[in-house]
Amino acid sequence: MSSLSEKDRPIVQLLLSTGTCPRCILRFCCVGSQMLYRHPHKDLMKDLQEFLKNGQEKEDIVCLDVADPPCKRLRLEHGEEGADDLNHNGAIPSADDGNSATESPAVKVCNVCLGILQEFCEPDFVKKVCQKVNSADYQFTSFVFSVSLPPQLSVRERAAWLGVKQQMRNLGLPLAKDDIVQLKEAYKWIIHPQLSEELGVPADGKSLFEVSVVFAHPETDEECHFLATACPDCFKPAKNKQSVFTRMAVIKALEKIKEEDFLKHFPCPPSSPKTLCDALEIQCNNGAVFVAGRYNKYSRNLPQTPWIIDGERKLESSVEELISEHLMAEFKADSFNFSSSGREDVDVRTLGNGRPFAIELVNPRRIRFTAEEMRRLQQAINDSSDKIQVRDLQLVTREAIGRMKEGEEEKTKTYSALIWTDKAIQREDIAFLDDIKELKLDQKTPLRVLHRRPLAVRCRLIHTMKSEYIDEHHFRLHLKTQAGTYIKEFVHGDFGRTKPNIGSLLNRTADILELDVESVDVDWPPTLAD
Question: Which residues of 336-348 are buried (b: 16+ CB within 10 A; e: fewer)?
């Protein structure tokens, strides 16, 4: 149950006479009943006309009864009985495909919403949206509906409102509010129940599955251009925007422009358009899904991420690709983003319990996996290559990934390095390394990464070392270090950019032949039972 009062009569009369649809009239009268907007267009028009006709014969308040939900199959066609009584804005056009602009001398599109609250509230359009959703084959248990409106709607709305204000002033009547029910809000009141019924799931503002419709109206595209002259500061080019006339820029300009300046450039009330809006795009998008695990890398010829230099690929695969290709196929995602707790060089193996990683799967069609299905997916990754192995593969939240990134700088890492020296060594020559604890290093950005990292001197710690003699020119060194330590540079010194280094400690030239990561001490993601 909702009501219009005597003070609304001039507003209804003015807007009806200038080509405004019934639902926009309710918005301008600040009617907040959701059920009333869902009432069939034909019935709303008759009720408004009855409200005007019987205004002097009834009490000051006339209630519009909307106790029963509207019949969604009711549709006003050109030849329907009673259409002649609906004034020049009452007929609802029937589009051929449900989202095309329609032009006909018999059709009068609302001069404010440009047909959004007319044709695009009808069951045919709702079914078209749902067909698009169902054909996209997404998994979802709820949805959030979003709509993008042409920016010129805000200009037309302002013009209509100024007309209402002028009419009320002329009649010497007060205008209680200077705001109306937003078009998007009214549209969602109407469309949500229909979408929910067709899709079989509830609308939920917090849902990760989004159904969006983008509307455009080419006929009136230039109607907001005068604002760029009146308020140039509001319209600044942006790299990711095709036009400076965005909805927010137009709203900002409308807030700044004076009433008299606006009326010099735009008709009040706004003229009736010849065509409906176009529904340019009907899109679906699922919120990202995050998968985490730990990987071992057994190859000394495999980069963590694709190795491309000057547009040319250097190696055929990478850790990232060997893992993600299976996840992309199973989750049916559009794209992915790979991250990990640190990274190893192409010629470095990662052993032990592996390196934590996480993959963000963007816009996945499939989002629900059982623990057994994740185990099978992990096995498929491991069976596909002998270069890597994955463990503890699991679904995680976006927030949980923060624990992995925290560990990058705070935790320790253990390495095993095979070292060569130019001068012969004996066991006793390297034994003293075992006694060194918490060795402080000053590491200037290595030459090999200077092209992608800023020049800086970083202080790092070697917590412990344990040497393993092999022969007079080779030994293996096991190190536990602060995360972020450049191990190769600690061995050979990087032309004196890392001090001290193994060469300077042994007083001879040293170089690294092999390096393995033996452990990354980040307690994430949780270990899973086999």
Answer: bebbbbbbbebeb
Mean pLDDT of the chain: 88
Compute the distance between CA of residue 40 and CA of residue 170 in angstroms, rounded to an integer: 33
Mind listing the pLDDT tens digit for each residue in 252-299? 999 999 999 999 999 999 999 999 999 999 999 999 999 999 999 999
Q: Yes or no: say if 77 and 113 are a contact pair by the CB < 8 Å rule.
A: no
User: To the nearest 10°, the Cα dihedral for 266, 272, 273, 275?
Assistant: 160
Both 418 and 404 in a single domain?
no
Give 55's pLDDT tier (boundaries 50, 70, 90).
Answer: low
pTM: 0.80
Distance CA(32)–CA(182), nearest Å, equals 10
From CA 509, how far away is CA 493, in angstroms rounded?
9
- pLDDT classification of 1: cutoffs 50, 70, 90: very low
Q: Which 3 state secondary structure label does DSSP give 298?
A: coil
* Position 245 in a domain: no
Quote the tokens at residue 322. Answer: 């060997």
Q: Residue 167 corresponds to which tokens in the numbers above? A: 């009419």
Radius of gyration (Cα) for the chain, nearest Å? 34
**Contact, 492 vs 501, CB < 8 A?**
yes
Tokens representing residue 159 in the block: 């013009």
User: In this structure, what are the phi and psi dihedrals at residue 79, rounded to the nearest 5 degrees?
Assistant: -95, 10
Q: In what order do the strands lie in the sheet with 209-216?
A: 144-148, 209-216, 278-286
Q: Residue 480's domain is classified under what CATH number?
A: 3.30.70.3190
Domain stops at, among 255, 285, 315: 285
Do 275 and 144 fall within a single domain?
A: yes
Select from 207, 204, 185 the least CA-distant residue to 285: 207
Please indicate, yes or no, whether residues 146 and 277 belong to a single structural domain of this protein: yes
237 found inside a domain: no
- Do 278 and 311 lie in one domain? The reply is no
Pair (333, 432) in one structural domain: no
For residues 141 and 279, membership in a common domain is answered with yes
Alpha-carbon distance of 418 to 347, in angstroms, equals 13
Residues with catalytic annotation? Answer: 345
In a domain, 302, yes or no: yes
Percent of the chain with pLDDT over 70: 87
Q: How many CB atoms within 10 Å of residue 150?
A: 25
Cβ atoms < 10 Å from Cβ of 363: 19
Total structural domains in the chain?
3
pLDDT of residue 275: 94
Is 238 inside any structural domain?
A: no
Q: Give me the residue label for tokens 């193994």.
A: 502
Number of helices and strands (H, E) in the chain?
16, 17
- Tell me the CA distances in angstroms from 449 to 345, 494, 501, one per residue in order: 11, 12, 18
**Domain end: 348, 374, 408, which one?**
408
Domain that holds residue 387: 288-408
Nearest to 216 by CA among 243, 191, 253: 243
Backbone angles phi, psi at 213, to 5 degrees: -125, 130
